[in-house]
Each structure stands twice: as C-alpha cells, then as structure tokens.
Design goal:
487 residues, alpha+beta, Immunoglobulin-like, Rossmann fold, 3 domains, 8-stranded mixed β-sheet, 6-stranded antiparallel β-sheet, 24% helix, 25% strand, globular, Ig-like_fold, Ig_E-set, NXPE4_C, NXPE family member 3-like
Length: 487
C-alpha cells in the first residue's frame, strides 16, 4: 500500500454531531465525532491527524465564535467538544490542517538540527579586516573544536557556535543573520517528492463536511449564570472563552475591557519589562499608543525604543528581543542580545515590576528540546527571582496561529501551526502548576479570531491579549464603562 493510499482523506472522513436532536442550552457542550478514513474509505487505526475546530454564530447580528477542543483517541477516531457560550444558531467548522502522515514528516524534519543557515560577520575595528562564517544553533559534531568559536552559555541552555574565522579572533564577532534562500533549500531537501504531496490539496487545510450541515439552535440557559466571574489569578487562565464581536470574553475569570484611563491607573508606578519575539513586541508598541509612552534618547537605552516612559503616571515599559536563533535576514549586532535568564538574574524585581516573556515563533524550526531546555533555565531563573523579590509578577505568553505565505512548502515545514502548537503545549505543561508564573495562553483566541491568521495579528487580537494581562495585574480594580473599547 502506498503512502497516498494510507493518508487521511478529507472526503472520506466522517464528521458527525452526536445527540443532534436534543435541546441545547447555553452552558451545555456540543460533541462531534470524527472518524478518519483513507483513500479507499477504510477507517484509520492510528491517530495523529491535526485538526482546527471552530464554532461560530450563524446569526450575523451576534458575531460570536469559539474554539473546539480535540481529543485524539489514537485509533483513528477523535472527539471534539464545543462549549456553548451564546444562544442562537451555531455552525461548526472543522478543518483537517495536516493528516497524521504529514505530521510525521513535520516531526522528523523538526528534530534535524542546524537545517537553518546562519552567518555571523567578524570585524577587526583596528585593521578593518572582516570575515563571515557559518553559525549553528545546535552542537555541530562535524566541526572540530579548534575550528569553533563557541558562544554557548550552558547555564542558560543557550547554544551558538560559529566556524572560526581564518585570521580573526572569536571576540571580533559583529553581526549575525539568517540566510533565507539557503535555509529553504536545505529544508526542501529533507523531504521526498511523495512527502511533498502531503502538503498540497486535498490534504492541506481542508474543510470537512459536518453532519448535519444546518445550524444548530442553542436556547438561553435554563438557569441564570453568575454575572461576576472570579478575578484572574495564576491558576485561573483566561484562555477558555469566546469572541463576542471584537472582544474576548473569558469563561473562567473576569477579563475586562480597559479604557485608556483604566490602563494608566492599572500600570501606575509600575515597570513592565517585555522580552521575546516580534509577536510580543506588538504589545510594547501598542502600549506606546495606549498609555501613551515617550522615548528620550538622551536618558534612555535601546530597550526603551519600543517602549518608553509616562512621567505623569510613573509608568515605564521596556522591550528586548530574545537571544539567537533569530530568523531575520538583516544583520543583528550579536552583543545587543541577552538571554532571558541573564535579564531575570539582573532584575531587582519587586511588587511594581511586571515581566512578560514570549518565545516561540523563531523556535518552531528547531528541535523541540532546544526550546524546552531554554524554558527549563528560564523557569529556574523565575524561581530565583521570586525568592528574592516575591511580589514580582511574571507572565509567559504562548504562540498563536499564523499565515503560511500562499501554501509554500518550506513555510509549513518550519512554521506550521502544528509546530507552534507543540511549543504552546510545552509552555503550558512546564508552568501548569507553577504559582510563580501566569501562563497567558492565547492559542484558542487565535484559532477562532475574527480577523485573519497572521503571526502578527491585528489590533483586535493585540488589545484583547493586553486586556487579559491588565486583568491579571489589576484583578480587583473595578473599571468603569466596562464593555467600551479603549479610547
């Protein structure tokens, strides 16, 4: 039997709503059963398919949506549960993002180290001599130790090794960049022609036909639900909920819409330190507008460029990118980057310090152990910080769904939503029972977001993510004008 015959076939896969004839009310759960079948219509006997499940209002006046949660029974069948948050007609949308056979390819390719190509330049400022050599984000056994410039830091589980330049010392390292063309060529060589077909239609991001096709009516709750949810705390994640128009409504804790004045009061006398990739940089740039923040190059360092201060409310926001690997084609000064652990070790912390971390988008192409080990070191540094400054508040944000550049194969192989979801799961598992850290899980929000998938989501997503942060920082602050958008 060929790979093509074994692969999950969307047209043959059945997707059926269970107990479709019962009366559904707000607060109930809608359950869908998926049975994966191959090209010949045979039921699959193993799991691993990656689905995306959404529930949305069929009444245009409501504009609501939520994410479904998929359970893989490892035998070719899956259960999808949708909490019913609103009354009215609801429609189900389930997408086979990747069949299990494609997931196996993603997993195999992910675990191959050093498939992305990086270069660093070395510059002797006295003689102007320069040299550029290849660098690696994982150990490279084929490069003898005497030919290495090893910039790794074992205490933070960070690896960065460059081929030693011929006539320059390792200390002359200057700028580093990602070579996109060579990286993509490398990745494409890792998959066979038959495997490439798994990342094309009809196997890629294919909508499944749900039985029944018609919307299901949801009645108002039989018993009135409590109007006031508990405050958002470390063990009450705001991840579960739904979109109501352009506002994320948590079903677990009290996430409020903050006005400009409420944001200022919430962040008054606080320093917000943000470190991570460009998806969390969106937060600091948005705070520049909302607070607002000012940057003074005569008194502030580069971390304030995408943050700044508000002297009236004594608010400071600072942003720094995480350390390599970075998937950026422009050269970045190597010594401008610091590991998260080093920053956590250096911060004094305290009750007026808020720290937000997010590392995922530049790690989807790396072996999973790379980000896991980096997070282990970060977790230990957070614990040390909390011991010396117990009042410090630390948040770790997960990843989101993203766009995939018109279905180009290399983008799926290094940046598929399946890869991002695995990192989200690692983050959730690592900090699940840790009272020192609040996990801001934004995955469900992105799965059913009103806007388009994008690694840099629109303002609606960014604002709703920030409202979750503010609701954790100021859980007891009663905001006037709840429900209004930020002005």
């Amino acid at each position: 039997m060929t790979l093509g015959q074994q692969v999950t076939c969307p047209d043959n896969t059945s997707t059926v709503v269970l107990n479709r004839d019962r009366l559904y009310h707000q607060g109930d759960h809608l359950t869908v059963r998926i049975v994966s079948r191959d090209q010949e219509g045979r039921p699959k006997t193993y799991g691993g398919d990656f689905f995306r499940a959404r529930l949305f209002s069929s009444d245009r006046s409501i504009l609501a949506s939520s994410a479904g949660h998929v359970t893989d029974h490892s035998n070719g069948t899956y259960t999808v549960k949708f909490p019913l948050y609103w009354a009215g007609g609801v429609s189900i949308q389930i997408q086979l993002v990747h069949p299990s056979e494609a997931v196996k390819v993603l997993k195999r390719v992910r675990e191959i180290p050093n498939k992305r190509v990086f270069y660093c330049s070395f510059v002797d400022e006295k003689t102007n001599a320069t040299n550029t050599t290849q660098c690696f984000s994982s150990a490279n056994p084929s490069l003898p130790p005497q030919q290495q410039c090893d910039f790794s830091k074992p205490e933070v589980n960070g690896t960065w090794i460059c081929k030693k330049p011929d006539k320059l010392s390792c200390s002359t390292i200057s700028k580093c960049r990602w070579d996109s063309d060579k990286s993509r060529a490398n990745v494409l060589e890792l998959v066979s022609e038959e495997e490439k077909k798994l990342f094309q239609k009809p196997y890629l991001e294919e909508e499944l036909e749900v039985d029944p096709k018609e919307p299901i009516r949801v009645l108002k709750a039989e018993l009135s639900t409590p109007q006031h949810l508990p405050a958002c705390t470390w063990d009450k994640s705001a991840a579960l909920g739904h979109w109501s128009g352009k506002v994320w409504r948590s079903s677990v804790c009290d996430v409020r819409v903050f006005t400009k004045k409420a944001i200022q009061r919430c962040l008054a006398n606080k320093t917000v330190y943000i470190q991570g990739d460009s998806t969390i940089r969106q937060w600091s740039k948005r705070l520049q507008q909302l607070v607002p923040l000012n940057y003074d190059n005569t008194t502030m360092d580069s971390t304030a460029l995408l943050g700044g201060d508000n002297s009236q409310w004594n608010i400071s926001v600072r942003y720094r990118f995480h350390h390599f690997p970075l998937q950026q084609v422009d050269g970045n000064a190597f010594h401008d980057f610091r590991y998260v652990v080093d920053e956590l070790n250096a911060t004094p912390g305290g009750p007026n310090m808020v720290i937000v971390l997010s590392l995922w988008a530049h790690f989807t192409a790396e072996p999973l152990e790379l980000i896991r080990s980096r997070l282990y070191a970060i977790r230990a540094a957070i614990h040390r910080l909390k011991r010396r400054a117990p009042g410090t508040r630390v948040f770790v944000r997960t990843g989101t769904t993203r766009e995939h550049h018109d279905g180009n194969l290399e983008f799926f192989l290094t940046g598929s939503d399946w890869l991002a979801y695995q990192i989200t799961e690692v983050i959730r598992e690592m900090f699940r029972a840790d009272p020192d850290v609040v996990v801001l899980n934004t995955w469900d929000m992105s799965v059913c977001q009103p806007g388009k998938d994008n690694v840099h989501p629109d303002q609606t997503m960014v604002d709703s993510q920030l409202y979750i942060l503010f609701s954790h920082i100021c859980p007891s602050y009663m905001v006037a004008n709840v429900g209004k958008t930020v002005f």
